[in-house]
Amino acid sequence: MVEPITLYRKARAPRRFLAAEYVELTMHFQCNLKCEHCMIEDSMGWLKPESMERFEQILQRNAAQRTWKGLILTGSEVTLRRDLPELARRAREAGFEHVRIQTHGMKLASVEYCRELVEAGIDQYFVSVTAADARTHDAITTMPGSFDKTMRGLENLDGMEGVTTLTNTVITERSYRQLPDVVQRLGHLRRLAQMDFWNFWPMSEQDPKDLIASHLDVLPYLREAIRGARALGRSVEVKNFPECLLGEDADALENEQPKLIIDPDFWPEFMRNGFHQCVHRDYCGARRCLGLNTAYVGKYGWHADVLVPLPKEE
Ligand code: SF4
Fold first, then answer.
1. Are 31 and 143 in contact (CB under 8 A)?
2. How many domains does the chain have?
């Protein structure tokens, strides 16, 4: 059952972390998990990580221009880089106020490793939590024991001064029913500042693994999760969901991303998603909406009678 739709544009909620204040550097393209929703699983083998020369260039550029407050170290699983603490130290020495890593969090199960990263200057941790329980999470990551390690990692970080954690849960056919439970499962974490919910996009014109869930099925779970996370004092960001369907919760939609520095060969793959498709696009006033993508339309159609164009600004 779809709740009544908001026929006005909902302003974006105040953001705790502004995408424009961060630059994202892809420093590693290997992973020791095989998540079924991995958006770069086909390209991970040939995408080239940024070189140390490029890393230093970004540091020097930012030291001179102060364009960004924070550096995000990412790629596939950046904790597999042995020199990760050294990269963080260099970034802090060069003046970055924050260094964040994006991680599946397994290695954080070691409290000594967490301490090493924190002491090196990594103060923000964006951790993938794919589901609310070990059985589902481990099935998604295809790694038995991964949920317990990731949870232990988040709890280790929760005990460390100066640390902020963020989580992301990718919304797929397998995970969407658990979104509110994920919020509750992480309810004890004091340092968890933000929960993200990224609606899966397949980097393809099709959905070969049948992972895309219908927006109409996802909607009540997603809205409950948004409200639950906010009730716990978290900020929330939702990506790739139709703005008009979210009603009063549309202020959680945030499709802005930090400046991404990545192998240029990534972009043709990304463009295969074909975002921004909607039968109402020409006259809809939504400014943050990515509409539907090619694989979604192929699977579920246009939802022309459910999506409601928002008024344009006067
Ligand atoms: S572009 Fe389409 S999906 Fe997005 S808000 Fe407008 S009508 Fe809804």
1. no
2. 1
